[in-house]
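can u do me a favor
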């Protein structure tokens, strides 16, 4: 039994490196490479009405994005990012949406029509980004096509921002247990929030023949400003996640983010509250 226990300790040590020697991690994407990025969102919102009744609203969404590395040097790489496909499903007595941007059939539900209209304005249009070797977004240029359309719906470019900003590595060597923080500001339809993201490096592991660096994230989001004609109170009841970074490829392999919020709102004198719980899983795959 003792030898079996020691064998298990050895196996765990091999599979999950202690990284006693520090290493420097960076994004290594080079000109000519392409990435297929798939983001899967699952969200359940429980609406609590003033009369004490509750209504559950589940939502699923999948967004397929393509990155083409158009240029690179030792300090940064240029990306041509494009949203290729969006699928959204929402089923409840209040909303019935089953939208797929690849299908010609138009949604009949008002919410589905709004989603379709927002998606069409950004679907298939390349957006130029410049990203530093630490994963920091240096520049984002919107094409003339967007400028001719006028103001875009709030959050319509969120998938491009989200995939480009999931992991910003700190300068210097990465040692086991190293921690750092960054702030993210968001404005969706006038709802302004600020998120504080805390990263913790947890070592490396082997998966599918690849060496992956693992990071744990803790996220706290607070309300900055409510939308016009609404009063909102936001409580972050526990949001965290994991990021797995391919050391050799120099790119995220998978990122998982879990969110839990409690939202109270007053709209025109009508008060209600929502419990929101969801998760987002994003995978990055070399496409060439």
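np, heres the sequence
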């Amino acid at each position: 039994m003792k030898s079996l226990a020691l064998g298990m300790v050895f196996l765990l040590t091999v599979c999950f490196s202690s990284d006693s020697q520090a290493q420097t991690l960076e994004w290594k994407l080079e000109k000519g490479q392409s990435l297929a990025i798939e983001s899967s969102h699952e969200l359940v919102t429980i609406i609590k009405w003033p009369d004490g009744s509750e209504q559950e609203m589940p939502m699923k969404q999948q967004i397929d994005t393509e990155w083409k590395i158009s240029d690179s040097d030792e300090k940064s790489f240029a990306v041509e990012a494009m949203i290729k496909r969006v699928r959204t499903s929402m089923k409840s007595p209040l909303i019935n949406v089953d939208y797929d941007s690849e299908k010609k059939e138009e949604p009949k539900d008002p919410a589905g029509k709004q989603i379709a209209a927002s998606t069409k304005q950004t679907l298939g249009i390349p957006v130029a980004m410049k990203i530093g070797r630490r994963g920091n977004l240096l520049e984002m240029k919107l094409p003339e096509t967007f400028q001719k359309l006028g103001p875009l719906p709030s959050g319509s470019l969120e998938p491009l921002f989200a995939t480009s900003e999931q992991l910003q590595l700190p300068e210097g060597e990465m040692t086991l247990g190293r921690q750092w923080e960054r702030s993210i500001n968001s404005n969706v339809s006038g709802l302004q929030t600020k998120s504080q993201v805390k990263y913790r490096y947890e070592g490396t592991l082997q998966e599918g023949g690849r060496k992956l660096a693992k990071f744990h994230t803790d996220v706290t989001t607070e309300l900055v400003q409510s939308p016009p004609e609404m009063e909102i109170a936001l409580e972050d009841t526990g949001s965290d996640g994991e990021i797995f970074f391919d050391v050799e490829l120099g790119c995220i392999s998978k990122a998982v983010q879990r969110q839990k919020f409690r939202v109270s709102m007053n709209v025109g004198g009508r008060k209600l509250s929502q419990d929101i719980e969801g998760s987002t899983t994003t995978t990055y795959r070399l496409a060439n």
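The chain is about 15% helix and 55% strand. hope that helps!!
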